[in-house]
Amino acid sequence: MVTIHRAHGLRVIIFTDDHEPAHVHVFGDGQAKINLIGPDGSPALVWAEGMKANELRRAVQLVRDQQEQFLARWREIHG
């Protein structure tokens, strides 16, 4: 598990032994899994548990804002 970003009380991680498609896990009060490239090319929420709506919006927006950087980190970790 590698923490790749922290902001707004959220921690974004990539598991080193994880699987495709490229995605991140975001932890705050709860957690969410967000694919880095969804059907329309932008990040897509896979699931969330325990996150309030405003925290989830922040998490998805954070991944949108950092999509290219997070994809680069995914590639560094997973090849």
From TrEMBL:
<dbReference type="Pfam" id="PF13711">
    <property type="entry name" value="DUF4160"/>
</dbReference>
<protein>
    <recommendedName>
        <fullName>DUF4160 domain-containing protein</fullName>
    </recommendedName>
</protein>
<dbReference type="InterPro" id="IPR025427">
    <property type="entry name" value="DUF4160"/>
</dbReference>
